[in-house]
Amino acid sequence: MSIINLQPERVFHYFEQISNIPRGSGNEKAVSDYCVATAKALGLSTFQDESNNVVIRKPATPGYENAPGVIIQGHLDMVCEKNNKTEHDFKTDGIKLVVDGDWLKADGTTLGGDDGIAVAMGFALMEAKDIEHPALECLFTTDEEVGMGGAKNFDASVLQGKRLINLDSEDEGIFVVSCCGGAKATIAVPGEWESVPEGLTAVRIKIRGLLGGHSGTDINLQRANANKLMGRVLRQIAKTFYFRLESINGGLMDNAITRECDAVIYTAEEDFEELEDMCGQFQSIFNNEYSGSEDGIFVIAEKADNTENRVLKAENAQNVIYVLNLIPYGVERISLEINGLVESSNNIGVVKTTADGIELTSAVRSSVATVKYDILERLSMIAEVAGGSLTIKSEYPGWEYKKDSKLREVCVEAYKEMFGKEPQIEAIHAGLECGLLSSKAPDIDMISIGPEMHDVHTPAEKISIASVGRTWDYLKFVLKKLK
Prior knowledge:
29% strand; 11 helices; alpha+beta; 6-stranded mixed β-sheet; 30% helix
């Protein structure tokens, strides 16, 4: 449906435009080209690098020529998650938008408000003729959701502005001034395949109904992870029945708490009813354990067809089950310096069966670099014990709190003047590109803000329409005061 009638109209116009363009991580060329073409149509100078990062420049309005320039920053890519029954190809299909009262959602998929709203606001600013502001630059990066590859490859020396407003935060009225560092860690457990022993029946074990969420900002909610639950179920099955493992697959992104996981096993026909009953018992156990954080967990056993008719060797399957259970999940440490802040965590976001065995990918996060490396070292030892290997990719630094920030002072005063109350100043347990950009350009003053968004990185993702309007008005007010 069209959302063109929503206010602020130009912000939602551009949001709808980019929502029509597939832009999952690694597939941002089309949306990057759209940004370049749109900027040129507006008569603005633009720069596109080999990583498809885009910089767009707009001169200062009269009276602001001598003010330090402002960079509006966000990322072009989005997390691609969908409900199991939703028919959607993120490589070719645009996002189907749904208005539900004050909430803008998608039809069975992630919305891409994270971080499409930054791009939309950036273009609305770039085309506006009635907003007072210093010289503006929009910096739209790529590959943020899978390791911040765009920001890593970006040459920050091309930036002219000295103040940066990142629009990748999800809580209105909360100003983020520091974030953790992280890395993607993949344990590869090797596997050899053999034919299914005679007399065994294929059974699919399914974990369903989990809420999922962002592996950084939602990790403190102690939601269940479908991959970890499957590990427990398979361990008990292995202790109770003779069975063989064909495959296990759960999750699409390491930075999303896994909502669904499937395992295909082979077991004796006469054991099926008892196995089905065991899954029912686990369903009750899990719902009891997570009664304060989940709405309803399902553990389902059903006869399977369309199987590969091959199984892992028994030793390989045992190693997979051990690794799945031993990999840490959830909060590792709470900060001793900032009250309530998660300091360190791990999320086993993706388990995937490959031609060579099983791969298990985690998002490691910590605001203390040495603790991050300790978690990575533990994952390395787990891999070694299982005869596997650990690969570390997409490592990124944290963003340290800056004691003296003129930008923060102006933003706080503007918020108090506009809304009559103090904003919250926070550090977050999630990775923001401010960490990488500040390491490349330490003299740029930075802050991160954004409108109210819930359930990002899940098909339940939604953004408050009214909050977008307030954030837009506030952003314009801040630019006016940055003289």
